[in-house]
Write a structure and sequence with these properties.
heterodimer; A: 375 residues; alpha/beta; D-Maltodextrin-Binding Protein, domain 2; 2 domains; three-stranded parallel beta sheet; 14 helices; 9 strands; 14% strand; globular; B: 321 residues; mainly alpha; MetI-like fold; three-stranded antiparallel beta sheet; two-stranded antiparallel sheet; 68% helix; flat
Chain lengths: 375, 321
Amino acid sequence: MKGIFRKKGFWLLIILVIVFAMLLAGGEEIEETEEEEEVIPWATMPENPVPMTGETISVYNWGDYIDSETIDIFEAETGIRVIYETFETNEDMYAKIAMGGSSYDVIIPSDYMVERMIQENLLQKINWANIPNVVNIDERFIHESYDPGFEYSVPYTWGTMGILYNTEAVLEAPTSWATLMDETYKMDMFMLNSPRDTLGIALVMCGYDLNSTDPAELEAAKALLIEQKPLVLAYVVDEVKDKMVGGEASVALVWSGDATFCMSESDELSYVVPKEGSNIFYDSMCIPYNARNVSGAEKFIDFLCRADIAAMNYDYVGYAIPNKAAVELMGAEEYNASPVNNPPQETLEKCQVFKYLGDKTHLYDQIWTEIISEF
Amino acid sequence: MKRNKALIVPFALWAAIFIVVPLVMIVWYGVTVEESIPYTEMVQADGSVVFQLEDGSVTETRPQKKTVVSLSNFKRMLEPTYLKLLMRSFKVAIITTLICLLLGYPVALILTGKDFKRPALWLMLLILPMWMNFLLRTYSWMSILENNGILNNWIASLREMFPAFDQWLLDRGVRRRVIFLYNENAVILGMVYNYLSFMIMPIYTVIEKIDKSLLEAAADLGASPVKSFTRVTLPYSIPGVMEGITMVFVPAVTTFVISQLMGGGKVPLIGDIIQNQFGKSSDWHFGATLSLLVMVVVLAFMGALNRIDKDDEPVKEVRIL
């Protein structure tokens, strides 16, 4: 018995040592950031909430894309109950609407999906008379390329694609896409594992249109990305956030939303929209063709356009907002200090939205598969 | 007997809804493509928009896509890009299965050994991590192996402590950080870790059930431990091995998340490409065609394995003994 006990103790000791060593090794990484920012509520619950009327609206939005407090305020102010559901990708949302089985009153798709849904008669025109707060939307962020005539959608958030870089690790702050071809960052950069995004940027780097479907231009973009391959540490998706915060690489192609998150986690990171121009994207509020409660949907959209509510959602979501009244309310100087919210106007003018390419989408997929399976 | 036929109804219904219908849908998606109808948009005098089709007819609603039967996706599937990816998926899955077998068989054997105390507890300890979500397990491996991960931090502190070791590594061209992730070996490691218990379990179950008196008889008749293993345990454990191979190989050949996370998108497997079709690229038809290809190839592979299985009748072997 004594022998067994000793043996057990021995193993226990080994396990303890390993666990302890791991804790020590891991401990260096963990830096507690205890900057508890004081939260100033832009809007508060009304003192005398309207009793529930039994009226409901159903809202279909991206996950983690609204401050749930604002929904409570809306319910208290109008007496309309909000049934709130979330989706992960535009395609998930599209499939659900296009199949026609379920009915939503407000959905928040991205630009190219708005374009596609308009083409496929899945959205209805918005009656602007019922959305007075639309005046809060900055004209700079009304892109008619995906919603001709500005009839079907109200922009909710916007963002860009750009370079997230570690200020401690780069020699000089990047300003151009050329950084992504720089040998200095060999095996030290992340690219997005996403055909449309990465090929789109490669097209811009070649000086072509972001939405090109010209086989010769796409071939040039493909050649560029194959040439770049030895420099790329990995083609990542959501993991890019953790990895950049953890200092895994010096530069990465990212969406500005992810950049905002990373910069809030690490002071060493900064973001730039390269001067050659980039992609700009919008997530917009729309009313699907089969909405049951259009007037409720209009009230909700109008509510989200209100300056105080948009400011609350900006604080929570962190994506740049097209709502100039909210920016003014929050203080334009502080808001514009972030490179994510305020790329130079001349860069912004060179940014384009992704167009819905229809049958041509598979061209991108084919080329992308050829690039990553090059081995 | 006739009365008992009614009992099969629930299963038949279940099979119809969850097996036959999805299969038919995959085949249907696989052999069709979506084609858009060409049209021109015209604004009329009153400002309304109409759409003119190629045959001259005019509609007020925008013409929608139609689904047509076409084998064009099969042609696309046979392009070298996709075949190369399929080959790589098989290679990675076969290596994974072999490693799992080489690690799993001895473990199962040791656990069933008569002088091993409390095998159930050890088996449980082996299975316990599998109760965690596999994504979590894969993310843990990532944080161990990352450039800035636990293992690299250990190596870095060792280098600091022993300059000679640092020099030795530098002489071999190892930079500050060793890049463990983002290659095929990392993907294989992730898969072996995730699937190992699927190999151990069936082999353990089968070996455990082998009649111990057979082994005693072998020993009584003068067979050495090695001989009684090769003539009794091994032949009788083949069904467990086959089951283990199936349970590891099939998920391994179709895996997608592990290859993305551990391989950093640089080691795409056929599963990743199929997943892309249903996600980012939104081309369900081509995704279905690719899944059909994988299904057929895996089926053929498993069929071949089963033949080997049948040829190995363990009873024959024992009779010789």
